Amino acid sequence: MSDIQGPPIKPSRAQLSTHLYQSLSHLIPRRRAFRRLGRYSRAFFLDHWPDFLLVLLVTAVAGAVFLIPTRPPLLFPLLDPTGAVYSPSLAYPYRPAIFSSLTAGLLGSLIPLGAILLSQLMIRSFADFSAATLGLFYALATGTFFQMILKKTIGGLRPHFLAVCKPRPVPLGSGVGFNGIMYRAQDVCTGSPGEIEWGIQSFPSGHSEIAFAGFGYLAIYFVTHLHRGDHDWRAGKLGFWRMLLVLMPILFATYISCTLWLSYHHHASDCLAGATIGILTALLGFRTTYRSLTDGTRNWKPRVGRRLKRALEREREEQTTSGQEQEQDEIELEQRHGIDGADDTGDVERA
Fold it and tell me: pTM for the whole thing?
């Protein structure tokens, strides 16, 4: 008599619910996971507390420099020998910025941090998250300090400078330089001192720097982690969506930067200089916390401190021991009840 395979048995609703729960169970945090997170966080802090202090110090110095009133000795042409405005590139009207400095700073820091956090739903690595977060802080703090020093000591005239300067009438040739057409802000400006000081801090663009430091770092994180563990660089493996995902942070950073040019707060050269500083600090921040920038086999591997490495190895040993004990208990249970190790979830055969 030949065996005839019957029709497939449809899983019940309870079985589907159990399967769905098992599929999503790794996303549900457990009490042991919180304890493990506490141990990892403590080890990470002990490894890097000098770095945290230095980041706070650099940020505080940048904030103090921002509050110090400075006026670089900038000269600007006011009138030509015929009495006409000599430099129309400084005569644009004042318009509020589309993104304020605070908004640009929050966007450039919180969105990359949130994206890195969401990526841990797939990566699930505390070492990766801690290294990525630390590198992001390095990039943001260093870039802000860099551009603030240049802005306060070098500076530059914004496109709307004459609108906030409100220069008083001056006789022709009463300035300095060739034909007496060059003037200083403190000599001819009658506008608000705060607006005048803001008007001579055009170089470099702080919005561009913070945008490219944060979103540029996120783009580097994406491009190094999207091929994590995949060394086959064929087009079919990479996919166009990965390219789009990498370019989205760059597009957002470019948009924030260009809004300053659109609202006459910066010249194009200021935005390019700020973007260069941001990209440079993003590259250095990532390279400081990860093992490589260009080597595809190592650029997604984080640098792990001594204490955190010890905590990770200890957890791995505990999981290995627990797994061996659980496997031994299952074998004893099967032997006690006469259960063989075959899989009984296959097709049901009927005579």
Answer: 0.79
Q: What is the pLDDT of residues 173-225, one digit of tens each?
A: 777 888 788 888 888 899 888 899 899 999 999 999 999 999 999 999 999 99
Q: How many CA atoms lie within 13 A of 300 on its CB side?
A: 17
The answer to whether 183 and 167 are in contact (CB under 8 A) is: yes
Give yes or no for a contact between 263 and 100, defined as CB atoms under 8 angstroms apart.
Answer: no
What does the pLDDT look like over 228-269, one tens digit per residue?
Answer: 655 554 444 557 888 899 999 999 999 999 999 999 999 999
Query: Residue 134: CB partners within 8 Å, gap ≥ 6?
Result: 48, 51, 289
Helix, strand, coil shares, percent, the chain, to 5: 65, 5, 30
One-letter amino acid for residue 251 of the chain: L
d(CA 193, CA 55): 32
Strands 4-5 and 349-350: antiparallel
- Distance from first CA to last CA of the chain, Å, rounded? 8
CA angle 90-95-96, nearest 5°? 130
Whether residue 98 contacts residue 262, with contact meaning beta carbons closer than 8 Å, is answered with yes
Placement of tokens 């590259």 in the chain: 283
